[in-house]
Amino acid sequence: MKLLVISQAGIGDTLFATPFLHELRANFPGAQIDAFVRWRGSKDVLENNPHVNAVHQHDLLQRSPVESLRFLRGLRRQKYDVSFNTHPQSKIHYRLVARFIGAPKRASHLYDHSGRLDGLLVNRTVPQNYERHAIENNLELLALIGAKRVQAWDVAGIWLFPSVIQMSKISAGAEYSSGAPVGMRRCAFRATAAAGAPAAFIIKRIMTNALPCARCGLRWHGSPR
Question: pLDDT class for 159, splitting at 50, 70, 90?
Fold first, then answer.
């Protein structure tokens, strides 16, 4: 089975898709699980993730239409069995991308403004719920292909490259094992990710446990998991 997770929104939103990727791997251990992201930072988030086979990165808005069409044709030739549009990707353009890639099963959320055209672009849907966290909304997609949640999630994970871990040790004096995921309380991360913090800033705050969340008062949770 070949699965494609489309996460074209922000870098933080891609991080919130990592529990979903983990659950896909738990349900389909032999599957090819790829991701398609827009931002280089999103690729960095996923590139060392053991649950992902390949990360495809392309900015459809900044690159020329010819380049983007060529790139999407390459994904179409992969002949994915299922594609998932992760939360939140409310614009119809994201579902147009899924339709062009052409997986027989195309899963997405239904948004408040979804119309008839959305029904032609995707064929497996679940209502989005803004009262629930993006992680929970993403996990709702599992049922659309008969998969089940293996465990409860309250953290998201980044698997850091050894070079990044070493850099962080030097700058923050923290000791982390190579390849270990860094756990973050999702509310605290959301507050900083929404502000567009660069990766170096985020890593430093994770390592030093220095930034409280304005929403709930929780601090970064930087212990390996």
Answer: low
